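Page 42, continued from yesterday. The earlier attempt failed because a stray header line got pasted into the input along with the sequence. Redoing it now with the clean sequence only.
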Amino acid sequence: HILAALGPAMEGWIWCVRNLDWLGEDADGFNRRADEAGAAGLWVTSQELLDAASGVYQTIEGEFLAFSHEVDPEETLAPFPDGQAELAVVAVDGGFFEVYAKDPEVLARLRTLKDVRDEDPSVYF
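This time it went through. Structure tokens are written below.
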């Protein structure tokens, strides 16, 4: 639901996926690819991420970091919000997602989802 709410913003991003544990159709292969990528993360296009997520019925854990297409994957993995990631989606214990975004327009899109709670990120970073 989060990826769908992002709409056209998805077109401008590539994704780094780390620490992934998905359940669903064909999830094992994507999980394995993310595991093999290790700390550097599995880099995928938005379409690859959407395709992989389409068969998922639960995300136990995972970090999904969205970057502009222009970034160099070798130099991007500084902690959010200081790094180059524009958006971070973090699955927490299969129960909820934490989503951090730098762009107010992206935040507005996410607020259209059910059960959204705004937090002040300066408390955490």
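Notes: The helical segments are 2-6, 27-37, 46-53, 104-110.
Reminder to self: strip header lines before submitting.
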